Amino acid sequence: MSSPADPRSLLNGQNIAFLEDVYEQYQEDPNSVPTEWQQYFSSLSSMESPMATSTSSGSSLDAAMATKQGSVSRLISTYRAMGHKLAKIDPINEMEAQDASELALEYHGLSAADLDTVFDTGPLRAPDRLPLRDIVAILKANYCGSIGYEYGHMASAQQRRWLRTRLEQPVGHDPFDAKQKKHILNRLTAAEGMERYLHTKYVGQKRFSLEGGESLIPMLDHIIHQGGAEGVKEVVIGMAHRGRLNVLVNILGKAPRTLFSEFEGKHDINELAASGDVKYHQGFSSDIQTSGGPVHLSLAFNPSHLEIVSPVVVGSVRARQQRRDDHEGNTVLPISIHGDAAFAGQGVVMETFQMSECRGYRTGGTVHIVVNNQIGFTTSHPKDARSTPYCTEIAKMVGAPIFHVNGDDPEAVIFATQIALDFRMKFHKDVVIDLVCYRRHGHNESDEPSVTQPVMYKNIKALDTTRRLYAQKLIDAGVITADDEKRAIEGYRESMVAGERVVPEFVEVQQGDHTVDWTPYFNIPWDQKTDTSFNAKRLDFLAARILDIPEGFQLHARTKKIMQDRVKMRNGELALDWGMAENLAYATLLDENFAVRISGQDSGRGTFFHRHATLHNTQNKEVHVPLRNIKDKQPDFLVINSLLSEEAVLAFEYGYACSDPKTMVIWEAQFGDFANGAQVVIDQFISSGESKWGRLSGLTMFLPHGYEGQGPEHSSARLERYLQLCAQHNMQVCYPSTPAQMFHMIRRQMVRPYRKPLIVMTPKSLLRHKLSTSTMEELHSGQFQNVIPEIDKLSDDKVHRVVFCTGKVYFDLLEQRRADKIDDIAIVRVEQLYPFPRNEVITELKRYPNANEVVWCQEEPKNQGAWYQIMHHFRACVEDRHTVLYAGREASASPAAGYLAVHREQQTRLVHAALAPIDEQDTYRVEALV
Fold it and tell me: Is residue 315 within 8 Å of 638, Cβ to Cβ?
């Protein structure tokens, strides 16, 4: 930025836009502007302004006039920042008036006496000079009408200037022609007509009506058609219940007769969904013809957990963008529709906003629409629902512009929508439209809201509908006639009666290069044999590739030692560890054209310093990712050190996995119990999504698990919770005990045509355990074993007890048995706990004809871990001669002991209980009840 010798030489009306930008930069950071400007701004008196200008003749203003001009400039800036406080955005006048004293003339040293004085208008979209009276009128028209704009919080001066240019319109400006106005009314007629038809035909049934917020329908219609004209090919929508049925029928083109069947309980059985779900949770997809070609619409399935669908949507969008090689977000658009109380109250909203600009999760911006009925989900007053004047304050954290718009002014709604969409497409950032409306009925149609909100609902009942108000406006303006209005209402009702589609732009779904065919993944037996071996020479080549470090790349000493050890592992000089096996598994998948995506807190290096999928140069900020360099034109490998979020990130990855069966999608918890913060995602999507909605997902969860005396917080991944959720072959739960098992389990997840969630209890101390190693041969020629038999050479006939266990405790048992030289107890590992491998367990029991004791040993307390969830499987596997015993910690309210000495004592006792003779009393072993 150049600077004149005297900044005052630039003080004239032609330069005011430039001066305003320099002053904004000075306010944000004084050192960002040249010294001359710093000195000038700092010398201004409290009543003086940097915008003080000269007269049109160029002569210097006197001090009084300069002060007045500065006051006018500040008034303009204040209206831009605070005009929303006086905006007429509430159709029912329920919002409490905000303190807007800073918008008064007197606040800026002006008065009514100055209204006829002519001032420079600066960057306002208006004549260069106007009387103050006209300036104020323009400001009120632009900033205090049916739209309240909040954009002063945005850090980017470029984005603020762009918004000002778009939203500031001359007084009396009409952005819509007669054809557009008729189309808006047509969409409102559809929105209202559907709700009224359902209200009379299905009295008392829940539908979560959109009445009061009907402007949502023309808003979505505009986004889809305008987006299609600008190159958008797919739109993914997430929303809760309110208005969902209306969106399904009037936006996505679902046939009304199908919806009516659902109301009548006669809907077609979804063969892919075992249990099904209520109609206002259902998703849908369709294609809509626009001027830019067909746009594919997807409405995401979602449960009643309100905002949790938002990160699922952006995850799905990211996968679709990846498939289209769209790294800007030009072709796939996410739309999240929120409720006001949920938007303000649900923490996952913040987490999702926080992801929006993170490299591993950005989608080029989400259009957020808040259907703000001002009463929350039941009967909440705003003072009970939030601590902020608006429900949208959280969006300011990422500098998203916010448009509060009166839902009873459909033209203002579309005007705000157009600016919001254009902003998103230009700057690829999130944007928020706060559709301020009301709810004509209760939370559901059987609720009576006037019990708790009598005054509000008395006013609402007296209101004309949005459609009626707008129709009358068009009648008064001569755009339509009263007969036109009547015919439109009757025509829509006739379509509903006939059950016909009411979206004329609906077209059959177009199959193309970016369409995913999921049919090969359905109805695949879980125990179908899958070859996960890999060519030995090719595996050696891949090992060489991931160990190839660029010349001059300086590794940290510890990392360098790990990479040197991996070279020895490749050469057979060292046993293979977990980190090497895991990286090789990903390399083989990439080699077979499967993409890999891993996200979690510290996943690049690995929480336990084992993975090192990303390498860092100690001399600079250069990063080397070996798995991106295994061959030419390979699929994507992305490892993400995620933000410190579990719920939103896991939901994002679920959405991604549901949209891409060709990518190994992994979410890794830093410790297994971190997944506690994402329980909604696990319960409502991962474990039950297929059963409820027929949605497949190959998402993999890595949950570090193991009792090492580190206390109750980071010992248990809550294995019992996942097993409790298992039924109908809905997901897999594995606890691998060797690097080779990890290798084959990862490969199996993608190589076989079977897409179910995989829950993995991953190791901590086992990562470096001397006995938990493998060989390269076990990788290229082995398979994943659901059950690993006894590995020591025992006499089968001599064995009188078979101990079954899973995970880390196996090595404690093995070492103790060897130390005690016990040769009549076999130890068998169950590596897959669900679906439970009954046949393999029975096979192992038959190996030992004289064994009459079967012990299940676990580290976890008895009421946790696997025991209570697999007892019935053991009962089905054992014979009459077998006595089934439990060896493990006693039931506990806490996942693990907090004191190391207590932990060690418990571990010693449970190992002893598993191996000691049955007549030795021990509180850790009890006979299983039959």
Answer: no
